[in-house]
Amino acid sequence: MHPVTDLPLPLRRRLRLLFTDVDDTLTTDGRLHAATYAALERLAAAGIAIVPVTGRNAGWTSAIATHWPVAGAIAENGGVWFVRDQDGRRTTHRYADAATITGHKARLTELAEQALAAVPAAAPAGNPAFHETDVALDHAENVGPLTDDEVATLVGVFEDAGARTAVSSIHVHAWLGDFDKLVGTQCFARDALGQDLDAFRGTSLFVGDSLNDAPLFAGIGASVGVANVARVADRLPVPPGYVTQSAGGAGFVELAELILAARR
């Protein structure tokens, strides 16, 4: 991973589309600081479309898509995304696999109960009723942090039953469907922007920090990790190309300042 100051100047100047993780990328110790939100505002004012891509549930992400200075948002590791209408006042949502809404919820709930029985120290992630395409178990937000072995046990219960999983810095996510953060991002680009994601190669960027960001670190041409990505870098199939000096939201602000300075 190269220092973020090595991010090519032409990309900083031409950037049109910025995808970003939320937890521990925009937030710091679970809080969204004023400086980070201000950086989002300034990037949007500079003409950059910002799209959060998070493992958080659809209900939680709907508020982001509606009230933040963003072009839309992608929730549940790509399972559902929100698109702003032309006047920017309302959002509509789409699903990567509509069958997950009706056909899979009961099975996922059953598997989550089995996982919690295997690792009693874990807990359901906040607002479980707001999940539409997946389930999420807390390993480091309001419990723990759990050990790597305990997290692996949770993952194993789901994967042994044929579910897909992703581990964020705070949650273990599981779903039954053929999607991930990259697939959701590709769907969003076609749905909201009218073009394949590849059309934005050279003018798009992803920033993240965790294992569930791996599909985007590998699948988007340019990627940045905030400094805390170092905790999982050796477990990422493809690490981000660049890394900030600061962690969490401060790292995002560091990246934003570089982009904005290049455009002035």
SSE blueprint and pairings:
Elements: E1 2-3, H1 9-14, E2 17-20, H2 34-45, E3 49-52, H3 58-67, E4 72-75, E5 80-84, E6 91-95, H4 99-102, H5 105-118, E7 123-124, E8 135-138, H6 148-160, E9 164-167, E10 171-175, H7 181-193, E11 204-208, H8 214-219, E12 223-225, E13 242-243, H9 248-263
Parallel strand pairs: 1-13, 2-3, 2-11, 11-12, 12-13
Antiparallel strand pairs: 4-5, 5-6, 7-8, 8-10, 9-10
Short synopsis of the structure:
The chain has 264 residues and is an alpha/beta fold.
Shape: globular
Instruction: Report the structural category.
Output: alpha/beta
Number of helices: 9
- Uncertain residue segments: none
- Give the termini separation: 27 Å
CATH superfamily of the largest domain: HAD superfamily/HAD-like
Overall number of domains: 2
Strand order of the largest sheet: 1-13-12-11-2-3
Largest sheet: 6 strands, parallel
Residue share in β-strands: 15-25%
Average residue pLDDT = 93
Percent in helix: 25-40%
CATH topology name of the largest domain: Rossmann fold
Cα radius of gyration in angstroms: 18 Å
Total count of strands: 13
| CATH class term of the largest domain | Alpha Beta
General description of the model:
- The protein has 264 residues and is of the alpha/beta class.
- It has two domains: 2-96 and 179-263, 3-Layer(aba) Sandwich (Rossmann fold); 99-175, Hypothetical Protein Ta0175, Chain: A, domain 2 (Alpha-Beta Complex), CATH 3.90.1070.
- It contains nine helices and 13 strands.
- It has helices at 9-14, 34-45, 58-67, 99-102, 105-118, 148-160, 181-193, 214-219, 248-263; strands at residues 2-3, 17-20, 49-52, 72-75, 80-84, 91-95, 123-124, 135-138, 164-167, 171-175, 204-208, 223-225, 242-243.
- It has a six-stranded parallel β-sheet. Strands 7-8-10-9 form a four-stranded antiparallel β-sheet, covered by helices on one side.
- Helix 5 (105-118) packs antiparallel against helix 6 (148-160).
- The protein is globular, with a radius of gyration of 18 Å.
- The relative contact order is 0.19.
